[in-house]
Design brief:
700 residues, Rossmann fold, five-stranded antiparallel β-sheet, binds adenosine-5'-triphosphate, binds magnesium ion, membrane, transmembrane helix, ABC transporter-like, ATP hydrolysis activity
């Protein structure tokens, strides 16, 4: 079996954004309108996904040699019991498998092996990742601005936004906020429809959806699938996993991929599935919803339910009339898998797969990236959205500004009018150290909100909305006014209550010192957020790093006294706190004179104190110290960029290597032998389906 790709941690598909439907604004259709022969043909052959187990246990096969294809103009349902591998199949096709699994087989897009990531396809995941502070209309409008062509006029763009709102039935809640931890917003079903709206907005050539109807009532589910069918009829390829659709919803699908424990039970036209089940000996009763029947026949969990009921003697009458109905679901499932393999449906599928595998590029549409907006428009849109989010999210900056004001007042009252006495030497230095080195530490408080924004970034990046550089730059620009506000309130309150120095230029330096220090903490937390998966771990790791940086800032242990190896160089050298404190003390003390310890002795000069008391060299000016903080700030931002880029580019390569190594090891192990498609009776407790047939519901 050929290795196609390693489990691809974070890369994946994205909003095709390749054009518009015929009814939509003219000028951005890409030639895949209804009736066009061009489109996205997706083929997968011998697709297996395994969860390697390097200890003695067996290796779990999540998908087992699947074959299938998807064509433009059609909508496919992936159905199967919970845990059957629906999401895994979608993730494998979209190149979004998690890192711990290994994929083998071929995935061909228009006859070619191609990584379907970062804008090649659109993927609506099971989890809705949205900015809670935005309204439904704002969310769709920003998404449209980020991705629709820059050449499109404002009116055209607005009309697409309004059409999409109506198309997804979101008109009633269009101006309501989505909601977050402190704000009750739109319902779960509305969120789901909004997530779908964001992806169909650009009419992507290939659209994946993971359970788009979960949490929706039957009318909404019908509405959503009908809309998806319309998208497909527009010449797009739509693949969606779905849980127990109603018969009306099921009838909307063109193709069906029925999965059970990672194996194909049926793949073909949805309307032929009933015929296949009848041929296989498990016909669908006339008054039963076909999808319910299919799932009931293949869901091995029914065996456990029946066993429990039998055990508790709640199940007594087992009709014996139909011999097939006396088989266990596990056995029926295995029969279906076997029958499908040699059925006309499988033969037909194999033939079509062969045809589609050799399809020329001339049949294919040009694969465009997820966004057709210019870099500048993306930046402008992101800055606007991010600024709006920051101004509406109380936890992002507002709460911090309040805390900074409160703490500044505390500092101001504790060190009030510090003066030039002998004791003021220590008071001034410790106050400066507290403000630049420790108060800035409170910037960690905005981390949870930043992590939320990062989640949206990851989703949008995977769907190809915009690049890493645009995100980083937009975040810096939109956070700038808030950081300036924090700096000004902190700097002004503390500077003038403590009465550091009357000269305005010293006040400006004091504020610049605070601003750069806070910006460094923000950037450091961004680096942490890109490396650590959740915000609790992020806060712990971030606080730990900051603790180390503070310890080496030259306040708790003077810089010359720090152990040279490691702590002085490089740690204190890389610590923004050491530069911040050096610059702050120089800014305050140089040029001042202080009372001596004993009256009558000469006054103590600021420069002397800096050198002798604090061990700070005066070979460079305070502006060099400030420049060093700016350099650290730039380094952190570049590091953040490099990490995000590295995750995108290099990690798939590492994962391919991991997959190759894992497969080499696994092939040596007996547990990796191909699983028999027909399960052994010895290992599967069998309980007949007839016992379930006697019940209205298999559950008590
Ligand atoms: N990265 C992974 N690591 C370990 N196990 C995994 C991983 N991905 C999937 N699985 C396992 O593979 C099986 C299939 O998972 P999958 O999420 O594809 O099921 P599903 O059909 O989408 O289920 P549901 O309908 O509940 O969403 C499950 O048993 C799951 O625990
Ligand atoms: Mg799933």
């Amino acid at each position: 079996m050929e290795i196609e790709a390693a489990a691809s941690g974070t890369h994946g598909g994205g909003g095709g954004g390749s054009g518009g439907s015929s009814e939509r604004a003219e000028g951005w259709a890409d030639g895949v309108g209804s009736g066009s022969v061009k489109g996205s043909y997706l083929v997968w052959e011998d697709l297996s996904v395994v969860l390697p187990n390097f200890s003695d246990g067996p290796t779990k096969r999540l998908l087992n040699g699947l074959k299938g294809f998807a064509e433009p103009g059609r909508i496919m349902a992936i159905m199967g019991p919970s845990g059957s591998g629906k999401s895994t199949l979608l993730d494998a096709l979209a190149g979004r498998l998690s890192r711990n699994v290994v994929m083998t087989g071929n995935i061909l897009f228009n006859g070619n092996k191609k990584r379907l990531d970062y804008g090649a396809i659109a993927y609506v995941t099971q989890e809705d990742v949205l900015l809670g502070t935005m309204s439904v209309r704002e969310t769709i409008a920003y998404s449209a601005n980020l991705r629709l062509p820059t050449t499109m006029s404002k009116e055209e763009l607005n009309s697409i936004v309004e059409e999409t709102i109506i198309e997804m039935g979101l008109y009633d809640c269009a101006d309501r906020l989505i909601g977050n931890w402190h704000l009750r917003g739109i319902s779960g079903g509305e969120k789901k429809r909004l997530s779908i709206a964001l992806e169909i907005l650009t009419r992507p050539c290939l659209l994946f959806l993971d359970e788009p109807t979960s949490g929706l009532d039957s009318a909404s589910a019908f509405f959503v699938v009908q809309t998806l069918r319309n998208v497909a009829r527009d010449g797009r390829t739509v693949i969606s996993s779905i849980h127990q659709p109603s018969s009306e919803v099921f009838a909307l699908f063109d193709d069906l991929f029925l999965l059970s424990s990672g194996e194909t039970v049926y793949f073909g036209e949805a309307k032929n599935a009933v015929e296949f089940f009848a041929e296989a000996g498990v016909p669908c009763p006339s008054r039963r919803n076909p999808s319910d029947h299919f799932l009931r026949c293949i869901n091995k969990d029914f065996d456990k339910v029946t066993a429990t009921l039998k055990g508790s003697l709640k199940l007594r009458d087992v009709p014996k009339s139909d011999p097939l109905m006396n088989l266990a679901t596990a056995e029926i499932r295995a029969t279906l898998v076997e029958k499908y393999r040699y059925s006309k449906y499988a033969t037909r599928a194999r033939k079509r797969i062969q045809e589609l595998s050799t399809i020329g590029e001339d049949h294919a549409i040009e694969m465009k990236s997820g966004s057709q907006a210019s870099w500048w428009k993306q930046l402008l849109t992101l800055v606007r959205r991010s600024s709006l989010n920051m101004s509406r999210d109380v936890g992002y900056y507002w709460l911090r500004i309040i805390i900074y004001i409160v703490v500044s007042i505390c500092v101001g009252t504790i060190y009030f009018d510090v003066g030039n006495s002998y004791t003021a030497i220590y008071a001034r230095a410790s106050c400066t150290a507290f403000i630049t080195g420790f108060m800035t530490f409170m910037s960690i408080g905005g981390f949870p909100s930043f992590v939320e924004e990062m989640k949206v970034f990851y989703k949008e990046r995977l769907n190809g909305y915009y690049g890493v550089s645009v995100f980083i730059l937009s975040n810096f620009i939109s956070s700038f006014p808030f950081l300036v506000a924090i700096t000004l309130v902190t700097g002004t309150i503390t500077y003038y209550t403590v009465k550091f120095r009357p000269e305005f230029s010293h006040y400006v330096f004091f504020c610049l010192n605070i601003f750069t220090s806070i910006s460094v903490i923000e950037s450091l937390m961004m680096v942490v957020a890109s490396l650590v998966p959740n915000f609790l771990m992020g806060i712990i790791v971030g606080a730990g790093i900051m603790g180390i940086l503070m310890m080496t800032s030259g306040f708790f242990r003077l810089l010359p006294d720090l152990p040279k190896l490691f702590w002085r160089y490089p740690v204190s050298f890389l610590s923004f706190g050491s530069w911040g404190i050096q610059g702050g003390i120089k800014n305050d003390l140089i040029g001042l004179e202080f009372d001596p310890l004993f009256p009558g002795e000469p006054k103590l000069k600021g420069a002397y104190i800096i050198r002798k008391f604090y061990g700070i060299p005066l070979d460079h000016s305070k502006w060099w110290d400030l420049s060093a903080i700016v350099a650290i700030l730039i380094i952190y931002r570049i590091l953040f960029f490099v990490i995000l880029k590295f995750k995108e580019r290099a990690s798939p390569l590492f994962q391919t290597l991991y997959a190759k190594r894992a497969l080499q090891q696994l092939h040596k192990r007996p547990s990796f032998r191909k699983m028999p498609s027909f399960p052994s009776r010895r290992h599967n407790p069998l309980y007949s389906l007839s016992s379930q047939e006697g019940l209205g519901s298999p559950l008590p």
